[in-house]
TrEMBL record:
GO molecular function, one term: serine-type carboxypeptidase activity
The enzyme's E.C. designation: 3.4.16.-
InterPro entries membership: AB_hydrolase_fold (IPR029058), Peptidase_S10 (IPR001563), Ser_caboxypep_ser_AS (IPR018202)
Any one GO cellular component localisation term in the record: extracellular region
Species lineage: Eukaryota, Viridiplantae, Streptophyta, Embryophyta, Tracheophyta
Signal peptide: 1-20
Recorded family membership: Belongs to the peptidase S10 family.
Subcellular location: Secreted
GO biological process, one term: proteolysis
Taxonomic source organism: Daucus carota subsp. sativus (Carrot)
Name under which the protein is recorded: Carboxypeptidase
SUPFAM superfamilies linked to this entry: alpha/beta-Hydrolases
Role according to the record: Probable carboxypeptidase.
Length: 457
C-alpha cells in the first residue's frame, strides 16, 4: 500500500511538475490549526546511522524565510538539556513562525524566519521524535559526530542550501553542542570545503561550568531572592559548582545538601529560576537545563499544568502533518527522560573551543537574557571578556547600551570586531520567549555582522 502510494506520488510529480526533489516528500501541506502563510515548511527524518541491527534517525523541522528564501541565510538552531527538543522549544515556543494557543497555532510576529531560513532538529537520538533502535550512552563528542552526519545528509536532501551562508545558534547546553559541532565542521572543511560557516551565536550558554555555575549565588542574592546569610554559605560553605559536581557523582554531602536546602527554601517554589522577575507559568517547556538545574536538586515544581506545545505535538493529526513517528516511546516530551548522557561532560569547558573558532575568523556572539539565574549574565560576560583578553582582542565597541525602538534593549561590547557580548534587558533564559522584539533586533544585527543599534529610533 505504502509502495503504491509512493509510486503514485512519483507519477504525479513527473506529470504536473510539482517539486520532485527528495525534500518534496517532507513538505508540510498545512499544520492543523495553522493560519495561512506564504512560505514553505518541511519536516521529517534524516537517518544518521543504519546497519542491519540498528537505525538512528534525527527529526527536523525546517522553515523557509517568509520572503525570498533564496537570498536569505540558513540558521541552525539547537536547544540544550541535554535532552531538550529544539523543535518544541526553539521552533514552537521561541522564534518559530507559530506559537500554540489552545486549539491551534497563531502567527508569531517576531518569527526569525522574517530574516532567515530556520532549521530546528532534535538531537541527540532519544530526544523528541528522534530515535535510535539501540540505546547507547551519549556525550558531547558523540553528539557532535551525529550532528555533523545529520547536516551533511540534510544538505543532500536540500542541495540548494548547501553553499548558503550558514549560522549556528543555540542556548543553554548548546554552549557545549555548538562549539563541538563547529569544530568538526571547520575540521571537515579543511579536507573539503563543505560548510559555509559565517558565525555562531549562543544564548545563556554553559561555557565554563565553574564560572557559569558560581555566578548564580550573587545573581540570586542581588535580586533579593536569597538573604545575606544564605549568600554567605552559598559562596563559602558550598558553592554551586561543588554542589553539582557532588551531585553528578551521586555523592551529595550533607554540607552541600544543607546549603541548597536553604537556597531552595528562600527562593520558594513560586519563582521561575529561568526568569526571576517574570510571573510564574512559563511552561514546563522552558525547564531545559536538566543537567545544570536538575529537578532533584532544585526542587522546583512544574507550575504549569497545561503545556500547550506538548499537547499540540502529541496530537495524532499534528504528528501526521509533520511526518513524525513515535518510535520506542509512547509520547513526545519536551525533555527526554530516555536519553543517557554523560553528565560529567558539563565540567569540560568549551570556552577554549570558542577561542579557536574566533582565531579561525568565525564571528561569535554570546548573549544573555538578563533575568536568568540559571546561567547568569555576569558569568558569561566575565568569560567573554577573559577570552578577548587571552586572544589579544581589543575592544572595538566599548560597553554601552543598545536600543530597540526608543528603549534600552540591553548592553553590548565588541572585541576585535569579531567577538561580541550582549545582554537582552528583561529577558529569560529563553530570550525570544519573554523579549521577542529585542531578541529579533539581536538576531538581525548578528546576521548582518553589525554592532547592536547605538541610537534610538
Ligand atoms: C567552589 O568550591 C570549590 C570547592 O570547595 C573551590 O575549589 C572553588 O574555588 C570554589 N569556587 C568559587 C568560585 O568560589
Ligand atoms: C516521555 O515521558 C513518558 C512518561 O512521562 C515516558 O513514558 C516516555 O518514554 C518519555 N519519552 C521520551 C522520549 O522521553
Ligand atoms: C591593542 O591595544 C594595544 C594597546 O593600545 C596595542 O598595543 C595593540 O597593538 C592593539 N592590538 C590590536 C590587535 O589592535
Amino acid at each position: 500500500m505504502a509502495k503504491t502510494h509512493l509510486m503514485l506520488l512519483f507519477l504525479l510529480c513527473s506529470f504536473i511538475k510539482i517539486e520532485c526533489s527528495l525534500s518534496g516528500f517532507d513538505k508540510i501541506t498545512k499544520l492543523p490549526g495553522q493560519p495561512k502563510v506564504g512560505f514553505q515548511q518541511y519536516s521529517g527524518y534524516i537517518i544518521v546511522d543504519k546497519t542491519n541491527m540498528k537505525e538512528k534517525a534525527f527529526f527536523y523541522y525546517f522553515v523557509e524565510a517568509e520572503r525570498d528564501p533564496a537570498s536569505k541565510p540558513l540558521v541552525l538552531w539547537l536547544n540544550g538539556g541535554p535532552g531538550c527538543s529544539s523543535v518544541g522549544i526553539g521552533g514552537f515556543s521561541e522564534h518559530g513562525p507559530f506559537r500554540t494557543n489552545g486549539n491551534g497555532l497563531v502567527k508569531n510576529k517576531c518569527s526569525w524566519n522574517s530574516e532567515a531560513n530556520m532549521l530546528y532538529w532534535e538531537s541527540p537520538a532519544g530526544v523528541g521524535f528522534s530515535y535510535s533502535s539501540e540505546k547507547s550512552k551519549m556525550n558531547d563528542e558523540l553528539t557532535a559526530r551525529d550532528n555533523l552526519v545529520f547536516l551533511k545528509r540534510w544538505f543532500m536532501k536540500f542541495p540548494q542550501y548547501s553553499q548558503r551562508e550558514l549560522f549556528l545558534m543555540g542556548e543553554s547546553y548548546a554552549g557545549h553542542y555548538i562549539p563541538h559541532l563547529a569544530q568538526l565542521m571547520t575540521q571537515s572543511n579543511k579536507k573539503q570545503r563543505v560548510f559555509n560557516l559565517k558565525g555562531i551565536a549562543l544564548g545563556n550558554p554553559v561555557l565554563d561550568y565553574v564560572t557559569d555555575f558560581n555566578s548564580r549565588a550573587e545573581f540570586l542574592w542581588s535580586h533579593g531572592v536569597i538573604s545575606d546569610s544564605t549568600y554567605n554559605i552559598f559562596t563559602s560553605v558550598c558553592n554551586y559548582s561543588r554542589l553539582m559536581s557532588e551531585f553528578y557523582r551521586d555523592s551529595l554531602s550533607s554540607t552541600c545538601s544543607g546549603v541548597i536546602g536553604e537556597v531552595n527554601k528562600e527562593t520558594s517554589r513560586f519563582v521561575d529560576i529561568y526568569d526571576v522577575t517574570l510571573d510564574i507559568c512559563i511552561a514546563s517547556v522552558f525547564a531545559q537545563s536538566k543537567v545544570i538545574s536538575p529537578q532533584q536538586v532544585i526542587n522546583n515544581i512544574d507550575v504549569c499544568l497545561e503545556d500547550e506545545t506538548v499537547n499540540y505535538l502529541n496530537r495524532k493529526d499534528v504528528q501526521k502533518a509533520l511526518h513524525a513517528r513515535l518510535v520506542g516511546v509512547d509520547k513526545w516530551n519536551v525533555t527526554s527522560n530516555i536519553l543517557d548522557y554523560d553528565h560529567l561532560d558539563v565540567e569540560k569547558p568549551t570556552i577554549s573551543l570558542i577561542g579557536s573558532l574566533v582565531m579561525e575568523g568565525i564571528p561569535v556572539l554570546v548573549f544573555s537574557g538578563d533575568q536568568d539565574s540559571v546561567i547568569p549574565l555576569t558569568g558569561s560576560r566575565t568569560l567573554v571578556h577573559g577570552l578577548a583578553k587571552q586572544l589579544g582582542l581589543n575592544t572595538t565597541v566599548p560597553y554601552r547600551v543598545w536600543f530597540q525602538g526608543q528603549q534600552v534593549g540591553g548592553w553590548t561590547q565588541v572585541y576585535g570586531n569579531i567577538l561580541s557580548y550582549a545582554t537582552i534587558r528583561g529577558a529569560a533564559h529563553e530570550t525570544p520567549f519573554s523579549q521577542p522584539e529585542r531578541s529579533l533586533v539581536v538576531f538581525k544585527s548578528f546576521l548582518k555582522g553589525m554592532p547592536l543599534p547605538e541610537k534610538f529610533s
